[in-house]
Specification:
Strand content: 5-15%
Strand order of the largest sheet: 1-2
CATH superfamily: Glutaredoxin
Structural class: mainly alpha
Largest sheet: 2 strands, parallel
Number of helices: 7
Shape: globular
Radius of gyration: 19 Å
Distance between the termini: 33 Å
Order of helices and strands: HEHEHEEHHHH
Protein backbone atom coordinates (compact mmCIF):
# COMPACT_ATOMS: atom_id res chain seq x y z
CA UNK A 1 0.00 0.00 0.00
CA UNK A 2 2.66 2.46 -1.05
CA UNK A 3 0.97 5.66 -2.12
CA UNK A 4 2.37 9.04 -1.24
CA UNK A 5 0.31 11.99 -0.04
CA UNK A 6 1.24 13.88 -3.22
CA UNK A 7 0.07 11.03 -5.47
CA UNK A 8 -3.16 10.78 -3.53
CA UNK A 9 -3.68 14.55 -3.69
CA UNK A 10 -3.27 14.63 -7.49
CA UNK A 11 -5.55 11.65 -8.05
CA UNK A 12 -8.22 13.05 -5.70
CA UNK A 13 -8.11 16.43 -7.45
CA UNK A 14 -8.55 14.86 -10.87
CA UNK A 15 -11.26 12.50 -9.62
CA UNK A 16 -13.24 15.31 -7.99
CA UNK A 17 -12.99 17.40 -11.17
CA UNK A 18 -14.44 14.49 -13.13
CA UNK A 19 -17.30 13.96 -10.69
CA UNK A 20 -18.16 17.69 -10.65
CA UNK A 21 -19.14 17.53 -14.32
CA UNK A 22 -20.11 13.90 -15.06
CA UNK A 23 -21.55 14.79 -18.49
CA UNK A 24 -18.16 15.75 -19.99
CA UNK A 25 -16.45 13.12 -22.10
CA UNK A 26 -13.31 13.45 -19.93
CA UNK A 27 -15.38 12.41 -16.91
CA UNK A 28 -16.48 9.07 -18.30
CA UNK A 29 -14.33 6.86 -16.09
CA UNK A 30 -14.33 5.38 -12.62
CA UNK A 31 -11.45 4.55 -10.29
CA UNK A 32 -11.11 1.35 -8.25
CA UNK A 33 -8.32 0.84 -5.72
CA UNK A 34 -6.99 -2.71 -5.58
CA UNK A 35 -4.54 -2.88 -2.67
CA UNK A 36 -1.96 -5.60 -3.28
CA UNK A 37 -0.32 -6.63 -0.02
CA UNK A 38 2.49 -8.99 0.89
CA UNK A 39 0.76 -12.17 2.04
CA UNK A 40 3.95 -13.72 3.36
CA UNK A 41 3.69 -11.58 6.49
CA UNK A 42 0.78 -11.76 8.93
CA UNK A 43 -2.06 -9.23 8.72
CA UNK A 44 -1.77 -7.17 11.91
CA UNK A 45 -3.89 -4.49 13.59
CA UNK A 46 -1.30 -1.93 12.46
CA UNK A 47 -1.68 -3.05 8.83
CA UNK A 48 -5.46 -2.97 9.20
CA UNK A 49 -5.30 0.58 10.59
CA UNK A 50 -2.98 1.68 7.77
CA UNK A 51 -5.31 0.16 5.17
CA UNK A 52 -8.43 1.75 6.68
CA UNK A 53 -6.73 5.15 6.97
CA UNK A 54 -5.68 5.02 3.34
CA UNK A 55 -9.10 3.78 2.24
CA UNK A 56 -10.87 6.62 4.09
CA UNK A 57 -8.77 9.19 2.22
CA UNK A 58 -9.88 7.87 -1.17
CA UNK A 59 -13.18 9.10 -2.63
CA UNK A 60 -13.41 6.28 -5.18
CA UNK A 61 -14.28 2.60 -5.06
CA UNK A 62 -12.04 0.21 -3.19
CA UNK A 63 -11.75 -3.50 -2.55
CA UNK A 64 -13.36 -4.10 0.83
CA UNK A 65 -10.30 -5.85 2.28
CA UNK A 66 -6.93 -6.73 0.68
CA UNK A 67 -7.04 -10.35 1.82
CA UNK A 68 -10.31 -10.87 -0.11
CA UNK A 69 -8.39 -10.63 -3.39
CA UNK A 70 -7.74 -14.13 -4.70
CA UNK A 71 -4.07 -15.03 -5.18
CA UNK A 72 -4.77 -15.77 -8.87
CA UNK A 73 -5.89 -12.16 -9.30
CA UNK A 74 -2.70 -10.91 -7.66
CA UNK A 75 -0.64 -13.16 -9.93
CA UNK A 76 -2.50 -11.75 -12.94
CA UNK A 77 -1.90 -8.15 -11.77
CA UNK A 78 1.81 -8.84 -11.32
CA UNK A 79 2.31 -10.72 -14.60
CA UNK A 80 -0.07 -9.04 -17.04
CA UNK A 81 -0.09 -5.51 -15.63
CA UNK A 82 3.61 -5.68 -14.64
CA UNK A 83 2.88 -4.58 -11.07
CA UNK A 84 5.96 -4.69 -8.89
CA UNK A 85 5.88 -2.40 -5.87
CA UNK A 86 5.03 1.17 -6.83
CA UNK A 87 1.44 2.22 -7.55
CA UNK A 88 0.17 1.84 -11.10
CA UNK A 89 -2.97 3.14 -12.75
CA UNK A 90 -4.34 0.57 -15.17
CA UNK A 91 -6.91 1.65 -17.77
CA UNK A 92 -9.48 -0.87 -18.99
CA UNK A 93 -12.18 -0.18 -21.57
CA UNK A 94 -15.88 -1.09 -21.00
CA UNK A 95 -15.32 -4.53 -22.54
CA UNK A 96 -12.47 -5.30 -20.11
CA UNK A 97 -9.70 -4.82 -22.68
CA UNK A 98 -6.41 -3.45 -21.36
CA UNK A 99 -5.87 0.06 -22.77
CA UNK A 100 -2.86 1.17 -20.72
CA UNK A 101 -1.03 -0.86 -18.09
CA UNK A 102 0.19 2.29 -16.33
CA UNK A 103 -1.29 5.71 -17.07
CA UNK A 104 0.02 7.26 -13.86
CA UNK A 105 2.70 9.36 -15.57
CA UNK A 106 0.19 10.64 -18.13
CA UNK A 107 -2.14 11.77 -15.35
CA UNK A 108 0.66 13.48 -13.40
CA UNK A 109 1.43 15.58 -16.46
CA UNK A 110 -1.92 16.08 -18.19
CA UNK A 111 -4.60 15.31 -15.61
CA UNK A 112 -8.07 14.75 -17.01
CA UNK A 113 -7.04 16.20 -20.38
CA UNK A 114 -5.35 12.85 -21.05
CA UNK A 115 -8.68 11.01 -21.17
CA UNK A 116 -9.06 8.24 -22.39
CA UNK A 117 -5.52 7.73 -21.03
CA UNK A 118 -4.16 5.97 -24.11
CA UNK A 119 -0.65 6.27 -25.56
CA UNK A 120 -2.25 7.80 -28.66
CA UNK A 121 -3.87 10.59 -26.61
CA UNK A 122 -0.57 11.15 -24.78
CA UNK A 123 1.25 11.50 -28.12
CA UNK A 124 -1.37 14.04 -29.29
CA UNK A 125 -0.91 16.09 -26.13
CA UNK A 126 2.89 16.08 -26.40
CA UNK A 127 2.71 17.03 -30.10
CA UNK A 128 0.50 20.02 -29.31
CA UNK A 129 2.67 21.29 -26.43
CA UNK A 130 5.24 24.05 -26.76
CA UNK A 131 8.38 23.22 -24.80
CA UNK A 132 8.91 26.25 -22.61
CA UNK A 133 10.32 26.63 -19.14
CA UNK A 134 6.81 27.55 -17.94
CA UNK A 135 5.63 24.15 -19.19
CA UNK A 136 8.45 22.35 -17.36
CA UNK A 137 8.34 24.32 -14.11
CA UNK A 138 4.69 25.32 -13.99
CA UNK A 139 5.41 29.05 -13.72
CA UNK A 140 8.38 31.39 -13.71
CA UNK A 141 9.41 34.66 -12.18
CA UNK A 142 10.12 37.19 -14.96
CA UNK A 143 12.54 39.05 -12.66
CA UNK A 144 14.95 36.08 -12.76
CA UNK A 145 16.72 36.04 -16.16
CA UNK A 146 18.55 32.69 -15.81
CA UNK A 147 17.39 29.43 -14.28
CA UNK A 148 19.73 26.64 -13.21
CA UNK A 149 18.04 23.27 -12.92
CA UNK A 150 19.54 20.69 -10.57
CA UNK A 151 18.24 17.19 -11.21
CA UNK A 152 19.19 14.17 -9.12
CA UNK A 153 18.10 10.63 -8.36
CA UNK A 154 16.64 9.76 -4.96
CA UNK A 155 19.66 7.56 -4.26
CA UNK A 156 21.85 10.68 -4.49
CA UNK A 157 19.90 12.45 -1.73
CA UNK A 158 22.30 11.46 1.09
CA UNK A 159 25.28 12.65 -0.96
CA UNK A 160 23.49 15.95 -1.63
CA UNK A 161 22.75 16.49 2.06
CA UNK A 162 26.37 15.84 2.99
CA UNK A 163 27.50 18.61 0.61
CA UNK A 164 25.66 21.30 2.58
Amino acid sequence: MKITDRELFILKKMYRESTNDPIREESQYEVVWIPVVDRSTPWTHAKQDQFENCQLRMPWYSVYHPLMIDSAVITYIKKVWNFKENPILVVIDPEGKLINNNALHIIWIWGGRAFPFTSRKEAELWASETWTFEFLAGSTDAAIPIWVIYAYKNSDMDKTRSLK
